[in-house]
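We treat protein structure as text, and this decision shapes the records that our systems exchange. Because each token names a local backbone shape, the row as a whole describes the fold. An entry from our holdings is shown next, in its original layout:
>
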Amino acid sequence: MLNRITISLTRASNHCIVSAIYTVFKVIKPEELLSEYLYLYFQRTEFDRYARFNSWGSARETFDWADMCNVKLPIPSIEKQEAIVTIYHTLETRKRINEQLKESIKPLCPVLMKGVVERMEMQTVEN
């Protein structure tokens, strides 16, 4: 299921978050709340369900800036936020490496299978 709440995080030196309604906001106390932690929180399917439940409008669901300001956030210590962000980046890096490995192995599979088949045929002839 795709999230309806579209949100983005810039990795520029001045981190900011941009929502689909073009509201740009910035964490004003980065020593208390990491923008990447906030971004990850907003990307959760649970937040998406919350936003849908609390949205308004008939033709198109709306969850605007005022609604975002009413969200109650669990804010762990900055160390825990950093750990969560690090775990996320590690997972994403491993996913990317895994995909790269799968792509690099693809051309080798037919060659490896040919070798296996030839070896099996040789063993069959020997027996």
